[in-house]
């Protein structure tokens, strides 16, 4: 499973906290693999106007992962605020680029004065937005088609999200996690970073309720670890959909949207990776390994393994053992 790709725009004069705090929250969002490991829900990167390092308001220096010219397809774009964005050259470059990406990106968010990069696109015209209280009058004057209410911490209007402060940026990150993977994944990320929780009716919840209604995707966060623990079961779409209490067609669409691959691709990837691990266990036959990860027979397993890794199982194991022996010899010689 590849996590959803989230890119933060970086520029000279950005507020570092608007990059770092939400980024850390996305990094804390993980799923249980079922084998004691954690699967990241997101891949987070920074986009620079150029490949040069950029300096935040605080003096901290960042190196961008991508530039406007090299960035791949994205799930989410986040525009952090900062005094640098209130300079027309920077805001124009960013807004021009956002226009080229808006139709290809699922959602775009602005943190605090990040709205100065998003508003010039015209994409927010007629929409409800929020921003930092100190700049709300200026935003309303410069962009009169926006419906600005700085008293609202977090606003969602269509695929666009705006927030008015650092604390709202934290809420924004948790809300996006909840939309994508369910409430308990968002709560777990909050707990991981020590974001205060309160108790209501015997259950832990965030100190401020998440703002937006989300789809009932908790079932996927629970389903993935179950799949990983039951690779030898019948993991057909019909059976998985039944377990998730959804129709097969709706399940397939929702699964790909949330996880990033079809159910069949996801299951085969898990089975192949687990089979590769089990090959290194002594005295395991191909028949037992194939059956243990859900293949009907060894021949089907061999074909799938060779298609995925470019080598037959035994050839792969032989090469793996040879590499391990060389590495061991090198360590002893050192």
Structural class: alpha/beta
The protein's oligomeric status is: single chain
- What would the CATH topology of the largest domain be? Rossmann fold
Q: Report the mean per-residue pLDDT as an integer.
A: 84
Report the order of strands and helices.
EHEEEEEEEHEHEHEEEHHEEHHHHHHH
Individual helix count? 13
Helix content, binned percent: 40-55%
Q: Find the count of extended strands (DSSP E, 2+ residues).
A: 15
The largest sheet, given as strand count, sense and whether it forms a barrel, is:
7 strands, mixed
CATH top-level class of the largest domain: Alpha Beta
CATH architecture title of the largest domain = 3-Layer(aba) Sandwich
Structural features, described:
This protein has 334 residues and is α/β, with parallel strands linked by helices. It folds into two domains: 4-206, 3-Layer(aba) Sandwich (Rossmann fold), CATH 3.40.50; 230-320, Orthogonal Bundle (Arc Repressor Mutant, subunit A), CATH 1.10.10.60. It is 46% helix and 16% strand. It is built from 13 helices and 15 strands. It has helices at residues 16-28, 88-101, 115-118, 136-142, 166-181, 183-192, 218-229, 237-243, 248-259, 263-279, 286-292, 298-309, 313-333, and strands spanning 4-10, 30-32, 38-40, 42-48, 54-55, 61-62, 66-67, 76-79, 107-111, 128-129, 147-148, 154-157, 160-163, 197-200, 203-206. The strands form five sheets. The protein has a seven-stranded mixed beta sheet with strand order 7-4-1-8-9-13-12. Strands 2-3 form a two-stranded antiparallel ribbon. Strands 5-6 form a two-stranded antiparallel ribbon. The longest helix is centred in the last third of the chain and has 21 residues, at 313-333.
């Amino acid at each position: 499973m590849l996590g959803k790709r989230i890119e933060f725009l970086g520029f000279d004069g950005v507020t570092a906290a608007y990059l770092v705090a939400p980024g850390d929250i996305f990094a804390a969002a993980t799923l249980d693999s079922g084998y004691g490991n954690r699967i990241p829900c997101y891949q987070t990167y920074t986009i620079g106007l150029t490949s040069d390092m950029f300096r935040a308001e605080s003096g901290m220096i960042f190196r961008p992962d991508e530039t406007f010219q090299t960035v791949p397809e994205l799930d989410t774009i986040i525009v952090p605020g900062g005094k640098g964005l209130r300079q027309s050259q920077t805001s124009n470059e960013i807004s021009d680029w956002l226009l080229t990406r808006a139709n290809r990106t699922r959602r775009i968010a602005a943190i605090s004065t990040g709205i100065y990069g998003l508003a010039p696109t015209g994409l927010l015209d007629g929409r409800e937005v929020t921003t930092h209280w100190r700049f709300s009058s200026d935003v309303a004057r410069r962009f009169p088609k926006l419906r600005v209410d700085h008293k609202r911490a977090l606003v969602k209007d269509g695929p666009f999200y705006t927030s008015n402060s650092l604390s709202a940026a934290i809420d924004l990150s948790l809300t996006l996690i909840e939309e994508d993977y369910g409430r308990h994944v968002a709560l777990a990320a909050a707990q991981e970073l020590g974001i205060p929780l309160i108790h209501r009716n015997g259950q832990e919840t965030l100190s401020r309720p998440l703002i937006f209604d989300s789809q009932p995707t908790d079932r996927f966060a629970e389903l993935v670890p179950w799949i990983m623990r039951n690779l030898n079961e019948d993991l057909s779409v019909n059976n998985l959909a039944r377990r998730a209490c959804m129709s097969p067609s709706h399940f397939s669409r929702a699964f790909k949207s949330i996880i990033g691959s079809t159910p069949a691709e996801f299951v085969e990837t898990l089975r192949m990776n687990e089979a590769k691990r089990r090959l290194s266990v002594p005295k395991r036959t191909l028949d037992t390994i194939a059956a243990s990860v859900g293949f009907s027979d060894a021949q089907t397993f061999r074909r799938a393994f060779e298609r995925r890794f470019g080598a037959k199982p035994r050839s792969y194991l032989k090469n793996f053992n040879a590499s391990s022996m060389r590495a061991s010899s090198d360590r002893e010689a050192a």
